Structures are given as C-alpha cells and as structure tokens.
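pasting for the record
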Amino acid sequence: MIKLNEKTTINSNNCRNTINFSFSTYFKGAIFVSKIGKKRWQDLCKKNVIKKIIYNAVDNKAFKPGRKIEKKIVNLLFVGRLVNRKGLIYLLKAVKKILTINHNIKLIIIGDGPEKLKSEKYVKKNNLGKFIEFKGEIFGKERINYYQRSDIFCAPYTDEAFGITILEALSCGVPVVGFRNEAFSEILKGYPYPKLFVKNKNFLELSLALNQLISNSKKRKEISIWGIKKVIKFNWTNTAKETEDLYYKVLGS
C-alpha cells in the first residue's frame, strides 16, 4: 500500500519519502488524498493496482471554535511552509494594497521555509512590519489558539493537492479566502461565497476578496457556521474506516 500526495517525489536513488518507478511492481493499492492528486499520480500505478481517494481529516475535538471577542482589528492568518507554491508573496502584496484604505488589520504568518527571507525583506522594504508578524513554526495547542483568535484564514496556495490547513481553519470557525484550485473546489463544494476564491496569483483580486470579509462580520459569521458543519465529515473515524476497508480489499486480492 502507498499513499500519494503533493509531497511525493520521484527519485530512483533515494527511497525515503520517494517512489522508485520500479517500486510500482511491489504495491497493490494506492491512496490519493483528492481527485487532483489521483489525476497527477495514478500513472505511477500499474493497471491492476487498486486506487482509492481517501480524504485527509482533522481532529474536530481539538480544532474547535474559540470565544470571539469584539475588536477593531481584524486578524488574518496564514499557515503553511514558506515555499513558492504556498503563494505568501501574493498575500503580502494583497495586504499592502488593503493597507492603502484600511489599517485595521493584522496578518500573522505561521511557518518556516526557504521563502521566509524573501518575504521578510518585502515586508521591511514596504514598511509593513507594523501590520505583519512572522511567528515561525508553531504546533499543538498554541497553533490551534492562533486559528481560534483569527477572523479570516488566507490560502493563497498556487498549487495544492488537498489543503489540510483549510480544514483546520474551518473546524475552528474561521472563514477562508484564497486562490481557486481544483483541490479547494473539491473539498469546499457548496462554499457560501465561492467568489472569495479568486484567479491564481492575482493579488489584486485577492485583496478585493479579503476586503469583502474584513468589512462584513455578518458574512464571516455565515461562513463560520457553514464551515463547522462542513468539516464534520472530514474526521479521522471515517478516514480510518475507509483506509482499513481498502487494506482488507488489497489483502483479499
């Protein structure tokens, strides 16, 4: 059995967290985390390999809404590895645009990676330090607390096979704004305001979408209620059961 997602790479010399093309001879089942993931990786599987889409899940007992406090500042949150495909630079440009008309925002960035220095330089060069904070890697309850204290989750991801942070945010009752991609369209089917997901890499459209929620607490509340209900089905009990069933199917084959 092998699980294929956007982090999987092809490398014939390194078998750790990689797939060797010849390795396809030895597995009989493949799990994909989304339809786009299956589309990208299914060609690695031979025809007789059992292929199944099983969504990632979120612990909705841990990731749950916190008590919201009425405040003037609207808190934006970004969580992700600071790499090119996570699109942080476009979010920074969108925030810069928003600040030309509204200073009542704060962007918190959780994560680390090779794009951090470039992003910090952009913030410094454009005098955005008062409105943007880099927190580095944060895990556990502290990370959940940041979700709970946020008003809007920002997902400027330019290439994503699933987006576990989207589920974490929605489970905490935080509405999401970001770029359109196949993965988000799949897991966020029925999103109350689909136009909050805009054209990929278009930071001007992203700034407009963010402004819609920044200025409308009623809309944020509506999405929050929808998100909490939506994420219930993305739970580890379902994921574990589907995985177990697939293992028995593979073993029985």
